[in-house]
Write a structure and sequence with these properties.
Layout (H helix, E strand, L loop, with lengths): L5 E6 L7 H15 L3 E5 L4 H4 L5 E3 L28 E2 L5 E2 L2 H10 L4 E6 L1 H13 L4 E5 L15 H22 L2 E6 L6 H9 L4 E3 L7 H13 L5 E6 L11 E3 L5 E3 L2 H13 L3 E5 L11 H19 L5 E6 L2 E6 H5 L10 H8 L7
Parallel strand pairs: 1-2, 1-6, 6-7, 7-14, 8-10, 8-13, 9-10
Antiparallel strand pairs: 2-3, 4-5, 11-12, 14-15
The structure holds 6-O-phosphono-beta-D-fructofuranose (F6P).
6-O-phosphono-beta-D-fructofuranose binds next to β12.
């Protein structure tokens, strides 16, 4: 057994379903198997940067109820406040990475487990290298775009939410002979749209990785009509661009822009080119909440156990990953260099095309 006995854990970046299940798995393995003490850091890296430090000891009693089933993260999280370029009240950006490292040592931690997406893992890996903080990563994101892992925590639940929405949209689309456009999250990756679109019986799935044309969409709608159906289900990933390549974004906090609006843009174009009444649904953060699916609970549990074992074996700067039906671990340096987008020539796109779904040209 390793001599590590004070383990820190934090969640960073956008929340998703399955984070509490992963925290629970880490706590169970660390306490039940290794006899360590576990500290939950609040609100991502902020908990170690703020003074007083913000943390809580995670005891087994906290997890003997419904934590496995709960959405969100009991620790809180943030997808802002990069410690290397921290937004100050006067509008300037300050490097506060030293505060994070100091906070880690103030708490007397021996290692840190970070549950995050590609952006968070990149920042935390840099922070931990700079401060000689032994760190292990666990991938989570509904976008499923973390390099080196086939699945990240949160993706399966988000896909289920989208499939459920399509199940609800189909009857109303059929009743009114409409085209229903469903805009889903995913940032620059189309995994949610593609997987849920197939499972939810969409006719048209548009993803950032494959260019589309309005004429292609119109032709597909014509085919559907010829087959005797008067309604159409269209799933569009938020990161899709206009036909001529412009991203559609909305202004959010602190003047930042985020994706949003491609569904409305498309609905207007579809109405023009296909002469069909259209309605738009933007699912938004509904995809991030709710109870984790069986798959996410399992993935989170397996990842949590493996991450603690990596710490016990002194194998740091690594991320746990799902590959070929099992949990493995990979160097974080290999993860942060790339991202995992939909393979336009892969099996899932092939299946979609095989079903006659229009997924672009
Ligand atoms: O990365 C997860 C994600 O939900 C994306 O799919 C989405 O574009 C983004 O986060 C939304 O971020 P926020 O919670 O800041 O609106």
């Amino acid at each position: 057994m390793s001599n590590v006995w004070r383990l820190g854990i934090l969640t960073s970046g956008g929340d998703c379903a399955g984070l509490n299940a992963a925290i629970r798995a880490v706590v169970y393995r660390a306490i039940r198997h290794y006899g360590w003490t576990v500290y939950g850091i609040k609100d991502g890296s902020l908990g170690l940067m703020n003074r007083p430090l913000q943390y809580q000891e995670l005891s087994l009693e906290l997890f003997n109820g419904n934590m496995l089933r709960m959405g969100g993260t009991m620790l809180g999280t943030t997808n802002k406040g990069d410690p290397f370029a921290f937004p100050m009240p006067d509008g300037s950006l300050k490097d506060r990475s030293a505060d994070f490292v100091e906070g880690y040592h103030m708490l007397g931690l021996h290692a840190l487990i970070v549950i995050g997406g590609d952006g968070s893992l990149k920042i935390l890996d840099r922070l931990c290298r700079q401060g000689n903080v032994p760190m292990v990563g666990i991938p989570k994101t509904i976008d499923n775009d973390v390099h080196q892992t086939e699945f990240a925590i949160g993706f399966a639940t988000a896909v289920n939410v989208v499939v459920d929405a399509l199940d609800r949209l189909q009857p109303t689309a059929a009743s009114h002979h409409r085209a229903m456009v469903l805009e889903v999250m995913g940032r620059d990756a189309g995994h949610i749209a593609l997987n849920a679109g197939i499972a939810g019986g969409a006719d048209i799935i548009l993803i950032p990785e494959i260019p589309y044309s309005l004429s292609g969409i119109a032709a597909k709608i014509e085919d559907v009509r010829r087959e005797g159906r008067s309604h159409v289900l269209i799933v569009v990933a938020e990161g899709c661009r206009t036909e001529d390549g412009k991203p559609i974004t909305v202004l959010c906090d602190q003047g930042q822009r985020r994706y949003g609006g491609i569904g409305q843009y498309l609905a207007e174009r579809v109405a023009e080119v296909a002469g069909l009444e259209t309605r738009v649904t933007v699912l938004g953060h509904v995809q991030r909440g709710g109870q984790p699916s069986m798959r996410d609970r399992l993935l989170a549990s397996a990842f949590g156990v493996h991450a603690v074992d990596l710490v016990a074996n002194g194998r740091f700067s690594r991320m746990v990953a799902w590959q070929d039906r099992g949990v493995v671990d990979v160097p974080i340096a290999k993860v942060v260099g790339g991202s995992r987008s939909v393979d336009p020539t892969g099996a899932v796109v092939h299946a979609a095309r095989g079903l006659g779904i229009y997924v672009g040209d």
